[in-house]
Amino acid sequence: MSSGDRSAAAERRSAQRVRVSREDLEGYYPTSDDAGRPDGADVVQHDLTDPTQPDPTQPGPGQRWSTWRSVAKGQRGPEPLPDWVVTRDAAIDTELGILKTGKEADAFLIERAVPAGTDSTPDLTLDQAATRCLLVAKRYRSLEHGQFHRGSEYTEGRTVRRTRDQRAMEDRKSAWGRAVSATQWADAEFIALRTAWEAGAPVPYPVQIDGTEVLMEFVGTEETDDLGRTQPIAAPRLTRVRPSDDLLESYWEQLTYGMSVLARLGFAHGDLSPYNILADGERLVIIDLPQVVDLAANPFSSDVLLRDCRTVCDWFTARGLDVDADALFADLLAQAF
């Protein structure tokens, strides 16, 4: 092939790459010149005469368009949606920082907000439609970069919907098997959160799942300083608080209720401890559910549930509350079966 032919071929390949849009790769994303977007919102046009000024209606560094519309309905949280959940296509996700690092996943704080100057949807006023919320993005690592301890103990008895995926999970040497296994933990946590939240358990609301990323409710508060700056404050883990006697009893009642809801659903948390329980003021919130254990199908389920009971009872006993791990274990088993 002559140099001229090679040059022409390179130009054709370049033209083909140009025709592949971001929408082809990632799904629909609104742009500033979209007149008929799915949410009916018209974005205020940015003045491009001053190139030094960033466009507030377009994602910048550390930002992306809201992924709410890009995932299937089954990958979103249960209905009815809480009124604080932002579902607008015009919303932008801004990464505010990391909340927690772990062996299997890292948790990031995300602000999902509709930029100032964006009109409301036709059927909702701005007061009725949520325009800003804080979320936690829990992003699971691949098997090569994660440290999944006691994995078989948790996953024994689990199945996936497609037999091809089930076979792939059993073959960790294949690329597909590693990919399926990596998403398995995110899927398990999202399903557990959906099921538990619908049943009334004190868990964060699961907003959506996209691959290995689970977006869920941020549990905490926001404080404003003297200069008017708002700072998110995550709820502390139970291990860091020193509740009064009355609040300690309330915490115990809330925790045993949450464990009872899971047991009636046929689940044990699997890794329950004061480090996986948030103390949001006077309420407790149970977190980190990727390793939920099926009490009927998993042969290790009794050992796992007893370990959960002993771990949490040890914490309450050390703070002066008279609780019995064996009695709690027996009660949860009775509710499960």
TrEMBL record:
Annotated region (Disordered), positions in chain: 1-82
UniProt catalytic activity: L-seryl-[protein] + ATP = O-phospho-L-seryl-[protein] + ADP + H(+); L-threonyl-[protein] + ATP = O-phospho-L-threonyl-[protein] + ADP + H(+)
SMART domains named in the record: RIO
Organism domain of life: Bacteria
E.C. numbers: 2.7.11.1
Domain RIO kinase stretches: 60-334
Pfam families: RIO1
Keywords, alphabetical: ATP-binding, Kinase, Magnesium, Metal-binding, Nucleotide-binding, Serine/threonine-protein kinase, Transferase
Positions with biased composition (Basic and acidic residues): 8-25, 34-49
Enzyme class: transferase
Molecular function per GO: kinase activity
Family to which this protein belongs: Belongs to the protein kinase superfamily. RIO-type Ser/Thr kinase family.
Descriptive protein name: non-specific serine/threonine protein kinase
